[in-house]
Structures are given as C-alpha cells and as structure tokens.
Specification:
With 278 residues, the protein is mainly alpha-helical. The chain contains eleven helices and three strands, in the order H-H-H-H-H-H-H-H-E-H-E-H-E-H. Helix content is 59%, strand content 5%. The N and C termini lie far apart (87 Å).
Length: 278
C-alpha cells in the first residue's frame, strides 16, 4: 500500500530509481508509478478551499479599493459618485463572476500541470530499455519531470494578479458604458520595471479610441481619429497578464480636435458661449 506520508519529491525519486534499475519492462510498472506520482502531486498542492479563499480576498481587495473607496473615479473624470454607487449591484456581480472564473482557471491549470508531469514521466520511462540503464542522469530527469508542478504556485499567483487587473478593467468598463463615455485613452505600463509589456500595447499608449455607439457619435459630433474605434482592438486587460488601463472620456472638449466633426465643433463652441454667459 502506498504511504501517504511520502512527499511528491520522494515518490518521484523512487519512481526514477525503479525505472532506472528495471527499465521499461511493462506498461503496468509505468502505470503504477503514474498513479503514485499523481496522488502525491495532488497531496502537495494547496487545498482548493485555501486557494479560493486567497483568491476571493485578493479580488475583494481590488473591489474595495476601486468601488468602496472610490479609486475607480480617477479613470472617469467628471463621473459622479452617485453614478458609481447606483451601479454597485452590477459591479458586485462582476466581482462574483470573476471569482468563479478565476477558480475554474486555477483548477484547469492544476489538471494540466499534473497531466504534463505524467506525460513527461511516461515519455522518459518508456525510453529506458528493459533491464535498466546506468547512464541515466537522475537529477536532471527529476528536475525536468517536476518542472510543471514546481512552477504551479508561481503560476497561480500570476493568475490571481491577472484576474485582479481584469476585474479592474471590467468594473471600469461597466461605469463607462453607463456613464456615457464617448472615447477612451489607452494607458500602458511599459515604463514599469521588469514588466514584460506587449510592443503593440506600448504603441497604443496615449492614443484615443472612439466608442462606436456613444451619444456623441449618434449625434454626429464626433468621428474616429487615427487610432480608430475601441471595438477594433483588444480591450485593456483582455489579453493574459496585460496591465494596461483606460482613462475614459465623456466630454467633447477633452477629445483631440481631429475627432470632432464640424457639427461637433459648432456644438462645443455653443456650449462654451453658454458657459461664458453664465
């Protein structure tokens, strides 16, 4: 009977030693060690209950900072606190949806890591001739086989951080659509140290993209500039590990001049005159 007290590392060490000594003499031998490795790998992982609790706490912290403490307002100049508060039920739904999606992603990553580990072990084991081998570099093989699982805690932390960015982006987009944003300015964190940014995202930095269905577009006040429409590119935070963010534009006066139509320029001038008269 398998000893449940043995660690994943110990089981893998025994498996490699056994296959090195005996070689691939039967499918049953490999299957036995695959089962032992799988059980030990699953025992070595942080429980899903603890992982989901850590995930919930991390995403809840993002939600609290943005919504409860109002930090999201810096991405929405001119939008009132009342507008944000009335959207709380929808924003809370985004939080819950993101928590569920993140937990599913972590579970899938775990399954894939175990499958990759077993695949590497099986591939190596089946290459050892029956009767064993004296030239196997056990340390190297062990390191190669266990690579996927040793990286898993790091990958899970990356998932949680990435899902935090995605939650931030989705909360901001809900507010923008309800608040009547007419355009969006892309902001990239390409200057951030050690950030593996995408070069095409760096090129978007500072560009203004028009919202296709905004009130300003329907009124004929605006037109797409050189950057085009926002729905023609991937959104901020959409791609894996993207840390870009958006600053949303709600007023004609905040748009680049080349994005205003003649009608829009006339409307803006009329508004300025009314303000001056007041």
């Amino acid at each position: 009977m398998a000893d449940p007290r043995k660690t994943y590392y110990e089981i893998l060490t025994e498996a490699i030693a056994d296959l090195t000594a005996n070689g691939f003499d039967s499918a049953e031998r490999v299957a036995y060690w695959q089962m032992r490795i799988k059980e030990a790998a699953e025992r070595s992982m942080r429980s899903m209950a603890d992982t989901e609790r850590m995930l919930r706490e991390a995403l809840m912290a993002v939600y609290t900072r943005l919504v409860d403490k109002g930090a999201v307002a810096k991405y929405h100049p001119g939008v009132s606190r009342f507008t944000i508060d009335k959207l709380r039920p929808i924003l809370r739904g985004e939080l819950d949806r993101r928590i569920l999606a993140s937990a599913d992603l972590i579970k899938l990553n775990r399954q894939q890591s175990i499958a990759k580990t077993l695949q590497r072990f099986s591939g190596w084991a089946s290459s050892i001739p029956a009767g064993g081998s004296k030239v196997v570099k056990k340390g190297e093989e062990k390191q190669n086989i266990r690579k996927a699982l040793t990286q898993l805690p790091f990958e899970e932390r990356r998932v949680i951080i990435d899902q935090g960015h995605k939650l931030s982006a989705s909360i901001s987009e809900v507010i923008a659509k309800d608040g009547g944003a007419i355009a969006v300015m892309w902001r990239s964190n390409w200057r951030q140290a050690n950030y593996n940014y995408r070069h095409n995202h760096k090129e978007r930095d500072g560009k203004v993209y028009l919202m296709r269905d905004s009130w300003a577009k329907k009124s004929g006040f605006v037109k797409a500039g050189k950057a085009g429409y926002y729905d023609e590119i991937t959104a901020v935070g959409e791609e894996p590990f993207c840390r870009c963010f958006a600053v949303w534009i709600y007023n004609l006066r905040d748009l680049p001049e080349d994005m205003l139509t003649v009608k829009g320029k006339n409307e803006l001038e009329a508004v300025r005159k009314r303000i001056a008269e007041l």
